[in-house]
Fold each of these.
Amino acid sequence: MTGNHPLYKIILVLIALTAIVFRLAEPARAAAANSGQIAILLSDSSEAYLQQATAFKEEVILPCQLFDLQGDIQRDPGLKDRLFASRPALIYALGAKAAYAAKLWTKDHQEIPVIFAMVLNWQRYNLLDNNHNIVGIAAEVAPGTQFANLTMFSPTVKRIGLLYSPYSTQILTQAKKDAA
């Protein structure tokens, strides 16, 4: 999906609206009074994350600064300090590692809102547990949509297999409901 795709622009608008809602909340107002900058935390410097970060920066009016975990939360021990030194009004975390790092790093900074995106199976990371400052955009396709696509392209398919793990219980429950 490129930056010109209509769904892509809708997602960016939803992200921006979510950021605005967070900015209206009291903790976000306190953080915004001190800064106004958005910290974009990348899991790594892959093209997918960089493309999303670039598109986001083009759509928001606040200044943004990139912070890259380089694939490992321990690779750059000073990254967390540099991020907090920028006094962000919002952290936009792209990818699972960035989202998890943002959760850990803001445990004692609940006044800084965090939005995560591009995290597959985000529930397994317990990103929302004990943190009231985190929201995210699910990267999964609903099972009902997957079934509709499957039957559209292969109408003769009557049975499908599913790889299961304890982390996919919620998806499996939804898939059973959608298939009924």
Amino acid sequence: MKKILLLIFISITAFGQDIAQLRKEFIAANQSSKASVAFLESTAKLSDKALHQAYKGAAMVIHAKFAKGVEEKKKWAKQGISLLEEAVKKDAKNIEIRTIRLSIQEQSPKVLKYKEKVEEDREFVSIEVAHLPNGPLKTFVEGYLNQK
């Protein structure tokens, strides 16, 4: 029984560290091509869980910003948006997923036409952040909202 509890604790701790690292890389990825590639590589082998999919999609869209050529940019952006939207469909009430989508939409160029849910996401995130307990997720969400 102790071994099972230890295994569960280790799994939960590892998942939390994994997400904390993804948050840091997500924030840094917009700063340089090198950081976007590092973030893309970090997300490549993540599971199909909704939150992981959201980060994978975000990594692809951010990578598109640094890709060479219009077609390459479109390819990465399209794949990323598709994954991000799939993540939202899987878990529409997840504030972290909605924050990620909000960030990507607000930063996406008009030519992508990926801004239709900005107001909906901003309202959802702004309301739901008040219900989060103090901790890394609340800090992440408030950090994004306060930068605007």
Amino acid sequence: MPSQDQPSRPRRSLTRIILFVVVLIIAHAIMIVILEMTIFKVRTPKYRFDSVSLTDVNTNSTSSTSSSLRMKLNAQATIKNKNFGPYKYYDCYLTIFYRGKSVGEVVVKEAKVKTLSIKKLTLSVNVTYSESAVSGKSNLKSDISSGALIMSSKSEMRGRVKLLKIIPKDRQPKMQCTMSINLAQKVVRDLKCD
């Protein structure tokens, strides 16, 4: 005859089932947290210049009243998407600055960067600057005489990452770069992007 201190068989089975369900719920919670921290974590894509070259460089600093600068910047840029879903960005602008003044601009056409991939862009910007068109003091003549110009660029993309092609998340990668242009050799030096 069974003693009353010992739980019955159905009661022991019920305890095991409840314990199994609790362990299963905890395992699922841990799995969700791990997925949320790895696969479902949305990262902002990286947007950078790889290289910049110059063509059609034309400077004029012989005039006593105004100096001018014209050139074409040819840039190789990349957008690196580390997300588990494609990144679609919309039209945006890449602007080139000389001493804080906009001297060139190009539209970066909308496109899509595939999951876990890198998209390469080729951008050409016509740069034009003339002291006669600028009010106030300009240092273009002295910069041309020194043989080096410091320029910067700025661009901000607006787009959306679709995690696992279903969960949309907005992301805006920004690119700010500085570069030194050697006018004698017609090359870009010290390209640095943040």
